[in-house]
Design brief:
By secondary structure, the chain is an alpha/beta fold. The chain has 28 helices and 30 strands.
């Protein structure tokens, strides 16, 4: 029975007049009937039509329990409200109001990109726009005009008002922070953050979509970039001052004093001028330059607040001296018992010598070699134990049983298996290449230095490594720099050593003879066809080992063809001929030379086929050289005027050695990572150098060596900001980049 029929059945004939004239009220002996034309609530429902690639909207008019959409026929549908006894109300559709709303929305949407689409009935749609873009442009206005908004069937409504609040609880090393939606009526609802919605300034809260301010949206975006979950929760390291600064206003007046303490500590760490100046310890033998004294003060400041840090001055600026002055300072304050110094094996002797030279009152012991002790009782009267990374990995369980005042890592970019280096101690890193290293190497250093600051490795890859290395994202790079900045002190040579002699880098090119060129081109063409086919089949990453192998062969052919096969011994090396001429000229003027090559076989050829035949006195280091032999070789080169040449393998001799007796450096074969070459040159160009340093880089024309230089220039932005390792370097290349290497 319809509503009209019900009325007719329960009232007298006077009702019929009311139905025919709905703008009047009538009474009868049974009851009074009232007609009503209310303004309905209006819901705008946006739906994505995937078939047509457009956004369609429907207006829904809500009259109490009854709803009609604007596509429905404009019949005078009605219902009867019996909530008041003896006075039923007939509710009629307010078609005039509905038409007014339809016209208003149509005009508003046309102004914002809607256009007419024809179907069974004409309607207006948004072409090539997302729902979220429409909400970003119109959401706030529609809500403030009184409309409700519905997206698909997922949300009951879209709301305006309320605000995002943050709650905090403090743990020992971090803060647990949650973002929640606080409605105007005081109701608090857990957030669900959708990144696409957030771009349009909307978040989910329960079954509603909440329009938030741009300030709140930007804050949530930044926190998502720092690891906030979609549920609005984040663990923040007490040393992540970048996030603490952003949230400080939320907790400024809270009772959580630890958050304020963390904020204040961050400001002090960033404001270098506020750090207290310390007296140089009386038993330190030497003079600290102004910037070195400032570094010494900084280490003392970190110690005062028990904060771990990274001294990352440019190579050759005296990180060793600053560290030793600081340890002597602790010794004289009776705050130093036993510390562990972890270094590359090639620098053990250098550290031992520097300790004896600058801090003779510090007692050091070297834990190295087959005769090393298996009991820390032997080190009871020792201040510093010096150990190599390799030996530490073998003896890690032995050392983890003991606590140290400080664990100091030199050349910290070499750190591996950081999870095994968990000591109960204050931690310090020394490195000349902190930010420029591959991003995951940076993560490894800071995961040891300040666990949790940069999140898990998988988080770091997603939020930092990939955006920085693949997409060159400047904002993410800046976010990473801001996060680690308070814990790194880095000064560059050109900033602090105005008196350091000039360094000149020169590229010397040579051209292959006909035999070498013919051999090179034959192998190049073969490798090129093979590699491009492999990439097409398996992709670049899965082809990496084949790419490395082919490029290695081409590099060796450019150096000495015999490196790939003894049968090519008789083919002359153009680079070797140029090298001999260059060395002869340098030695004729009584200079000293550092000679670097990646290949031990090259060092052997140079030594046996040229250096020894010419009776040139030399020193020699490669990866197999023992510690004592290294130490003797370095001392001899530095002190013996007759030793003119030092032959060094690039990755062994490029770190942690002072070789200022040399004023010429020769890089025989270019390396993918320019930072390694720079460190090699800086063995000579450092404090103590009084002569101009000239570095020669030898390149064979029309070979992969030339292509390496071109490719480095093409990728210079990544190389400058985050110098890559060989493996990650190739991950940034395209098929065309690789093809050019084989041209």
């Amino acid at each position: 029975m319809s509503p009209v029929e019900r009325i007719r059945a329960t009232t007298n004939l006077k009702i019929i007049d009311a139905l025919n004239h709905p703008d009047i009220s009538v009474s009868c002996s049974m009851q009074t009937i009232t007609n009503k034309y209310p303004a309905p609530k209006v819901v705008i429902k946006f739906v994505e039509n995937e078939n047509y690639g457009r956004i369609e909207y429907t207006l829904i008019f809500k009259y109490g329990y009854d709803s009609f959409d604007n596509a429905a026929p404009k019949k005078e549908n009605m219902h009867i409200d019996y909530s008041i006894p003896d006075n039923p109300v007939i509710v009629w559709r307010n078609t005039d109001y509905e038409n007014e709303i339809e016209n208003y929305c149509r005009d508003l949407f046309i102004k914002n990109g809607a256009s007419k689409a024809w179907g069974y009935t004409p309607k207006y749609v948004f072409e090539r726009q997302s729902i979220y873009n429409i909400l970003l442009k119109l959401g706030e206005k529609l809500i403030s005009d009184g409309f409700e908004i519905c997206i698909k069937d997922e949300f009951n409504n879209v709301k305006l008002g309320g605000k995002i609040k943050f709650s905090i609880s403090a743990e020992i090393d971090w803060f647990d922070i949650s973002a929640i939606y606080a409605a105007d009526d005081g109701t608090e609802i857990k957030l669900k953050i959708d990144r696409k919605l957030l771009d349009s300034q909307f978040v989910k809260a329960g079954s509603s979509l909440i329009y938030i301010s741009k300030e709140n949206a930007d804050k949530l975006k930044e926190l998502l970039g720092q690891g906030m979950t979609d549920d609005g929760e984040i663990k923040v390291s007490k040393y992540n001052f970048h996030v603490i600064d952003q949230l400080y206003d939320e907790f400024r007046d809270s009772e959580n004093g630890r958050f304020t303490d963390a904020k204040n500590l961050g400001e002090k760490l960033r404001n270098f001028k506020t750090i207290e100046k310390l007296e140089i310890p009386k038993n330190f033998v030497g003079v600290l330059r102004d910037y070195q004294h400032a570094g010494f003060n900084w280490l003392g400041f970190l110690h005062r607040f028990s904060v771990n840090g990274c001294l990352a001055d440019d190579m050759g600026l005296g990180k060793t001296v600053q560290t030793l002055a600081f340890l002597q300072f602790l010794k004289e304050k009776k705050e130093l018992n036993l510390s562990l110094l972890i270094v590359p094996v090639s620098t053990i002797g250098n550290w031992d010598n520097e300790i004896k030279k600058f801090t003779p009152k510090l007692k050091s012991a070297i834990h190295h070699g087959a005769a090393r002790t298996d009991s820390l009782d032997m080190y009871k009267k020792t201040d510093i134990i010096i150990i190599s990374y390799h030996t530490l990995r073998n003896d890690i369980e032995f050392f983890l049983e003991h606590s140290f005042d400080y664990v100091i890592l030199d050349e910290a970019q070499n750190i591996k298996n950081v999870n095994s280096l968990v000591f109960k101690s204050v931690r310090m890193l020394l490195t000349g290449t902190p930010i420029e290293n591959n991003t995951l190497e940076l993560w490894a250093q800071f995961d040891y230095l300040l666990p949790g600051l940069l999140g898990s490795q998988s988080f770091f890859k997603s939020f930092f490594s990939r955006p920085i290395e693949t997409f060159k994202d400047k904002k993410v790079t800046e976010r990473l720099r801001n996060t680690i900045f308070p814990f790194i002190l880095r000064r560059k040579k050109e900033e602090v050593l105005k008196e350091l002699p000039e360094k000149t880098e020169i590229i010397l090119q040579s051209e292959m003879g006909s035999e070498q060129k013919k051999l090179y081109e034959k192998h190049r063409d073969t490798f090129r066809a093979m590699i491009l086919k492999k990439i097409d089949e398996d992709g670049i990453n899965k082809s990496a080992i084949h790419i490395f192998s082919a490029l290695l062969r081409l590099r060796q052919l450019a150096l000495f063809p015999a490196l790939i096969d003894d049968k090519f011994k008789k083919i002359e090396s153009c680079k070797f001929e140029q090298l001999k001429e260059t060395i002869d000229e340098i030695l004729a003027e009584d200079h000293k030379i550092l000679f670097f090559s990646q290949f031990v076989e090259v060092l052997k050829i140079i030594r046996e086929s040229y250096i020894e035949k010419k009776n040139i006195k030399y020193s020699y280091i490669d990866g197999s050289t023992g510690m004592l032999e290294r130490k003797k070789g370095i001392e001899a080169f530095q002190t013996d005027k007759d030793i003119k040449v030092f032959l060094l393998s690039l990755k062994t001799g490029a770190f942690g050695i002072n070789l200022t007796a040399a004023d010429y450096v020769i890089i025989f074969d270019p390396w993918w990572n320019p930072a390694v070459e720079s460190q090699a040159v800086d063995r000579a160009h450092r404090i103590g150098q009084t002569s101009k340093v000239i570095a020669y880089k030898l390149i064979v024309k029309d070979t992969v060596e030339e292509k390496i230089l071109e490719l480095q220039n093409k990728k210079k932005e990544l190389v400058r900001e985050l110098i890559t390792s060989e493996a990650s370097f190739f991950k940034t290349l395209t098929k065309n980049d690789i093809a050019k290497l084989f041209e």
